[in-house]
Specification:
By secondary structure, the chain is an alpha+beta fold. The chain is built from eight helices and twelve strands. The protein has three domains: 118 residues, no CATH class; 68 residues; 90 residues, no CATH class. A hairpin with a 5-residue loop joins strand 2 and strand 3. The longest helix is centred in the N-terminal third of the chain and has 15 residues.
Length: 328
């Protein structure tokens, strides 16, 4: 995932000091022993202490471990991690007030790696390069999800782990409310980048159509999933049944109010609004024109439309048109 993702772990290995236990002669008032007697006495009185040459291997290993622990630097406090992460996000120009941070390790180039959670919005993985390198937690998770959809065994690299950074519904749901989406969001994720380089988010709504969200310089752009599908995109969190259920209310108080919708698709749009085809459980289907405020202004039978709007109705096979085509 990262060009410098390998984490380097540091430690120090202390060397045990090796020495032999000295030998002491006893004064007994007798004649000094011969050389051979000396060697024999030395053999009898010499002792070997644990941890020295010839001592117990377990004791030597324990001595080395104690020395190693004594030389390791003390772990940073949570406050120190937050301060270090805040310095990196500020240097990177990110709008983030760090609320929690953990140190992940360091790269082979000795650049520290942190995961930071922000009081609002997504969190980041931060690398203390110059300038700092940053990775959006939601984008990393979205990339991992798509990779696993293609291959469940895919290696996805470093991901965020702080619980707040995994709350996609909470973070993206706040964006959706800011953008004017009113449904109760039950699923959310990152789609990817738009052609303008902006992050695109997806929301799913229980019992209605979901949407894609993109933050433009002028504000949020919301594209419902019916339009996403029309342009050959894919909404992962919306089913055709949810789209039909959510669209049924647009038939009320129109010429199509007697239609029990079975299928719905977006046909296109022009200056007058967006056009949708609805297949009914019985009878002819309809084409609806919906204004930018989401209100249905006109409903035409598929027979009346013929091919004058888009390519005509395709969800049902209407009878041959018997009336002049309507004006768009």
């Amino acid at each position: 995932m990262f060009s410098k993702k390998t984490l380097a772990l540091f430690g120090a290995m202390a060397l045990a000091v090796l020495s032999a236990q000295p030998v002491f002669a006893q004064d007994t008032g007798q004649a000094p022993p011969s050389n051979e007697d000396n060697r024999s006495a030395q053999h009898r009185t010499e002792t070997v202490l644990p941890g020295r040459i010839g001592g117990d291997r377990t004791d030597r290993r324990q001595e080395r471990e104690r020395a190693q622990r004594g030389r390791q630097p003390a772990a940073a406090t949570p406050e120190q991690n937050i301060a270090a992460a805040q310095a990196l996000v500020t240097a990177a120009g990110l709008q983030c007030q760090v609320s929690e941070a953990v140190k992940l390790g360091a790269t082979a180039e000795h650049e520290n790696l942190y995961e930071a959670a922000c009081t609002s919005g997504p969190g980041y993985i931060l690398q203390s390069s110059t300038p700092p390198t940053t990775y959006n937690c939601l984008e990393l998770l979205g990339q991992a999800d798509r990779a696993r959809e293609r291959d469940p065994a895919a290696v996805v690299g470093q991901l965020c782990a702080i619980p707040h950074n995994l709350d996609t519904v909470g973070i993206i749901g706040a964006y959706a409310r800011e953008a004017g989406v009113t449904c109760a969001i039950d699923q959310a994720g990152v789609v990817g980048k738009s052609t303008a380089g902006n992050t695109v988010y997806e929301t799913g709504c229980p019992g209605s159509d979901g949407a894609w969200l993109e933050k433009l310089s002028t504000g949020w752009q919301v594209t419902d999933c019916l339009e996403v599908v029309m342009t050959h995109g894919v909404c992962r969190f919306t089913t055709p049944e949810e789209q039909v259920a959510g669209f049924q209310s647009k038939l009320a108080n129109t010429e199509a109010s007697d239609c029990q919708a079975q299928q719905v698709r977006m046909m296109g749009f022009n200056a007058n609004g967006k056009f949708y085809e609805v297949k009914c459980a019985a009878g002819d289907g309809y084409v609806l024109r919906v204004n930018p405020q989401g209100v249905t202004e006109r409903a035409y039978t598929c027979a009346a439309v013929g091919t004058s709007i888009g390519n005509g109705c395709t969800l049902s096979t209407p009878p041959e048109a018997t009336a002049p085509p309507p004006e768009n």
